[in-house]
Sequence to fold (495 residues):
Amino acid sequence: MKKTLIALFSFILLTSPTGQAQDAKAVIDAAASALGATNLRTLQFSGWGFDYVFGQSYTGAGAWPRFSLPAYTMTIDFAAPAMRDDRRRAQIEDPPLGGGFQPLATEQRLITLVNGAYAWDIVGDNAVASGFRNDRQPNVIGRTEQIWLTPQGFVKLAASSKATTRTATLRGAKKTIVTLDNATYGKLEATLNDQNLIEHIERWFGHSVLGDTLIEADFTEYKDFNGVKFPTHIVQRQGGYPLLDLRVADVRVNPAVAFDVPANIRNATPPASLVAPPEKLADGVWVFPTYAKSAVVEFRDHVVVIEAAETEAQSIEIIDGIKKAIPNKPIRYLVNTHSHFDHIGGMRTYAAEGATIVTHRDNIPFYQQVWSNPRTISPDRLSRSGKTATFMGVTGTQLLTDGARRLVIYHYAGNMHNPGLLMAYLPAEKILIEADSFSPPAAPLTAPPNALVNLKHFVDSVDRLQLDVDQVIPVHGRVTKMDEAREILAKFLTK
Ligand SMILES: [Zn+2]
Fold:
């Protein structure tokens, strides 16, 4: 509502819709000069604050869960473009509601980099292929975007973009607004105050869950750091909720930087397929491994898929694979464990396929709301089909059966990761499919894992429901035995 009013006001009070390239260049040059950006090649800013994990809210429509950042350092090479984001993240939500691996057992050190076409992470002493981003933007785009979301970065991006400018009166003050149309990053807009300092930047991008989505940054409390004016308070929001709230304590101007792409990253060959080949676990039961894997169960005249992949591109590969493995049977149901974005980014593809989405009843209004958002930037199969998704709401227990095979869906209430968590159980096969309650570690644990309390809640739920489980198909992590979850609890909960 407030946004709409501001937009309306800026439209009404539009005083000078010049739109001339010459005017835009003059405005951008004035901003570059005011910001001290003209001779700025590299920049480092550091401080402390909070970050928030996008797409991991406790309930579908809620705010992203918040974490404390005792230390944050961003280093940028504008020309490369390259950046290194180095943050220490600690638990702060109490109770620890929502995703993001809460409750964190220990403080995390997160180091992410991008240089040109390469993105990677530093884990310990090693460079590793960049991890997943739940904004579903390619890592290179999502990380480089952070350079253009600084005041100095914006004016530098303007040099390689089509730019227009207009003036507006916002809350009684005269502002200059610069709009960029960039071949890679689409539309960005910056609001300049009467000193030519950038107060606000926003960028629209296409999101798999939210449709056309805004990432925005507010800059206040500018200070001079050796000739560079830089905000000492930065707040970013994505999809309407805070993403970063940073107090900048120190800025270094033109520091020496080294962003060499490690050989193992430069020489890595991208996989030919987004999805690993399917693995058959039992008669009529398959797993399609991706970061968020899909389990596939064959019934007499149809197929049920438990969990969509993260992206439409992955879902398309999985659906093609299902049609090859199980020809001539429609996918009738897509069972969704919960509303986190790494579990629903590829869900709309199944709705386009004609499948009914089976989810906790309380998720349905959220899905219907965000799925009706405009999708002009990244249309998908569902938006192009013009179809409306069909949902089946689960509360308690829901049996899916054709008379022979039985698949039972359980809501296990009370988990702090998400209130609507569903798990799916095949009693004859003793197979349980679950998400984010038990993600088997890659190597044997030597210290208590994150989210141990949620693992306990899951094992207690399996026991309370008296499920006889042999194999567990975790949506994240390798297929394993239920005993492994019990062993982790026995090892770390008794101490
Ligand atoms: Zn989750």
Notes: The CA atoms of residues 125 and 321 lie 38 Å apart. The chain is about 20% helix and 35% strand. The pocket of zinc ion is lined by residues 99, 338, 340, 417-418, 436 (CB under 6 Å). Confidence is low (pLDDT under 50) at residues 4-16.
